[in-house]
Design a protein that fits this description.
CATH class: Alpha Beta
Order of helices and strands: HHEHHEHEHHHHHEHEHEEH
Number of domains: 1
CATH architecture: 3-Layer(aba) Sandwich
Oligomer: single chain
Largest sheet: 5 strands, parallel
Helix content: 40-55%
Number of strands: 7
Radius of gyration: 25 Å
CATH superfamily: SGNH hydrolase
Structural class: alpha/beta
Mean pLDDT: 86
Low-confidence stretches: none
Length: 324
């Protein structure tokens, strides 16, 4: 009898402990859910207030606010190579450079599509590396995570490019904003004293004394197969721009590196541009720049002296296309 009583008491205690444990787990889950929802609402409220403040704000601005007749999009090469004021003065239309460091093909497809949804610019200058249509080319999307389920182009691109195990986590605001929340908070805190250090989005790189002299080398060709997804996405963007009468210039600016200007991706890019009436310019191997390493701060980025010289050269290339 004593054994049965002990066993019965043990079971009762175990059930009570299990109930307490389950209640504690449910409480923790509920608290995490509440915090997750709260973080999402607070960050969503903050984002518009830091539009165009720093890199994080620049993404918000490019997706939601830019409205100039001329828009420059692309990665760091666009941000550092196209002088907005020179473009404005030459083409007699206001211009803004929304290019952001470390943001490549798929990111900029989302930017261009979002711009076309909001208004019809006169000209889009799209700095596009001619290797971007290959499978396997670096194409990070982390800077778009805060706009998942908030921007349809971002949502569809992330779902196409990333595995379900990754994008399913983006249903959590804590995960979605994890990499940018500190930058958003800092920008929001200093929003009233923020000074835009860009020149209408253009980021000049001051010439610097290099620790190691630049050496002109052949770039390594790592890729062989075109990405069907990226080819179709490129067609979609240019088709939408063409339908709205937007003039698009797709261009690869100078670099201090030798590469094949007729690689498979470049040839496909040129063909698609022709199909939709866009101007394609492969300027990566211009002798005028390859012969002057003093115009570069590193093999892929020109300094401000190079950028001014290049923007002047580029404007002479596109003036007739833009004005006709």
């Amino acid at each position: 009898m004593a054994v049965r009583s002990f066993t019965s008491n043990s079971k009762t205690i175990m059930k009570k402990n299990l109930s307490k444990f389950c209640a504690a787990v449910l409480l923790v889950v509920a608290m995490v859910f509440v915090v997750d929802v709260a973080v999402g609402k607070v960050i969503n409220w903050m984002l518009p207030q830091i539009s165009n403040q720093g890199d994080t704000g620049k993404t918000y601005y490019s997706l939601n606010d830019v409205h100039t007749p001329i828009v420059i999009v692309g990665s760091s090469r666009a941000a550092h190579h196209y002088v907005s004021q020179m473009i404005e003065d030459s083409l007699d239309m206001s211009a803004y450079n929304v290019a952001r460091d470390g943001c490549f093909f798929s990111y900029n497809c989302c930017v261009v599509n979002s711009i076309l949804d909001r208004y019809t610019p006169k000209v889009i200058i799209w700095e596009n590396g001619t290797e971007y249509l290959y499978e396997g080319v670096a194409d990070p999307l982390e800077n778009l995570y805060p706009y998942y389920e908030r921007n349809s182009w971002v949502t569809s691109t992330i779902r196409e490019e990333l595995p379900w195990t990754e994008y399913s986590r983006l249903n959590s605001s804590l995960y979605q904003f994890n990499s940018v929340v500190h930058r958003i908070l800092m920008r929001y805190r200093g929003r009233n004293s923020f000074v835009d250090e860009t020149e209408k989005g253009y980021l000049p790189l001051q010439p610097k004394k290099l620790k190691k002299a630049l050496v002109l080398k052949h770039g390594e060709q790592k890729y062989a197969k075109l990405s069907k997804t990226k080819v179709e996405r490129f067609k979609e963007v240019l088709s939408r721009a063409s339908a709205k009468g937007v003039k698009v210039v797709v261009v690869d600016s100078p670099m201090y590196r030798l590469c094949d200007v007729n690689n498979k991706s470049a040839v496909e890019m040129r063909k698609i541009c022709k199909m939709y009436g866009a101007l394609f310019l492969n300027n990566s191997q211009l002798p005028e720049f390859l012969e002057h390493k003093e115009l570069f701060n590193d093999p892929t980025h020109m300094n401000t002296i190079g950028a001014v010289a290049y923007t002047d050269f580029f404007l002479r290339q596109i003036r007739d296309f833009v004005n006709n």
